[in-house]
Design brief:
alpha/beta, 17% strand, seven-stranded mixed beta sheet, 41% helix, 7 strands
Length: 158
């Protein structure tokens, strides 16, 4: 588990432009519009294609349409929190192997709950943009490597 070093509300789906030659597609899930935008901009500057969702329920609504390589999840969100979304993603055979990163305060309880839900990495708020990018890039690279080797990416449960 990796713990690197923000708190979070509005329901509105936003999609990024398609980035030719993108390093990977990331679904960023956070209820705070400013945080979503901050994460989106930092990842796009590093060549990632970014799609955003405002809570865990919206994440589950769009995940199959978006087909992300990595999902970042805030913990405290309306309708469905990050742990609930992670658990449902892990329970679905189509998404059980997607790498998941929690981007939150990362208290001891959050880390323990995240591990139990099958989360792969943690980025503690307030985060350094370079650290966030490093964690996401590592997860995308690991997923690509595991795809080439025929092994599933992500911790997955079940």
């Amino acid at each position: 588990m990796e713990v690197a070093k923000t708190r979070t509300r509005e329901l509105r789906r936003t999609y990024s432009r398609v980035v030719p030659g993108a390093s990977g597609r990331v679904l960023v899930v956070d209820d705070n519009k400013v945080i979503r935008q901050l994460i989106k901009v930092n990842l796009e500057l590093e060549g990632f294609e970014v799609v955003t969702a405002s809570d865990g329920a919206e994440c589950l609504d769009v995940v199959h349409e978006v087909a992300p390589d990595v999902i970042t999840l805030d913990v405290v969100m309306p309708r469905l929190d990050g742990f609930g979304a992670a658990a449902q993603l892990r329970a679905d055979p189509r998404t059980r192997h997607l790498p998941l990163a929690i981007v939150s305060a990362c208290t001891q309880h959050e880390v323990e709950s995240g591990i139990e839900a099958g989360v792969d990495a943690f980025v503690a708020k307030p985060f350094e943009p370079a650290e966030l990018v490093r964690v996401v890039r590592r997860l995308v690279e690991r997923r690509d490597r595991e795809r080439r080797e025929g092994a599933p990416a992500g911790r997955g449960r079940g």
